[in-house]
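Justification of computing resources. Each target in the renewal requires a structure prediction run like the one illustrated here; the chain below, 231 residues long, is used simply to show the kind of job we budget for.
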Amino acid sequence: MANQISVRYLGHARFEFNFNGTKVLTDPFITYNPLAKDINVSELSPDYIMLSHAHEDHVADLANIQQQSGATVAAIVETANWVRRQGVPEDKVIEFNFGGTLNLPFGKVKMVYALHTNSTPDGAYGGVPCGFVFFVGDKKIYFAGDTALTLEMKLLEDLQLDWAFLPIGGHYTMDMYDAVKAANFIQCDNIIGMHYDTFSPVTIDTAEARRIFQDAGLNLNLLALGESIAL
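Resulting structure tokens:
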């Protein structure tokens, strides 16, 4: 049976993956995102929530979504400790660290490096930010999280990634120009942009972004809010 893999864009770095019927949500920040006002948080029911780090624009809706869905939350050790403090039951929290790979019902998830900072909304230490590589059937999907351009990305080039989710907004993460370099580092042609246009510092010229990716022979997807595509 062929893989049935798709993703829906919920704004900023929020994506709802459908891995053959299992729903995986990344970095839930919807209620306080003015660009995501058409997304109804109460209707989200993921099976898993993956946190790249604990800045508020990545975790603001975590507790509500977890409580209503019963989702299992996976994060680096220190961020996982913060998740527990939000009242998430111990058996619904998976902590792991760099080099670790989770074997989950839908496939595998490997934690990989991201160059960024991390603290929890209450100002506590949140550990080190991270990204994830999802291995689902024969598909390999890289979710970079918030990151600057880093040579660590070159470690992923031999994976033969099918898709990469890269921040392109600049200011807090790498910009569109560094994202083109990142795509070359990881040797992945199919890119989905994220972490742009949410706040004024990360507003970009989308036409310019499409141009520079096209000039580099890369397929850049800038999804509309709520849009789904097959992966």
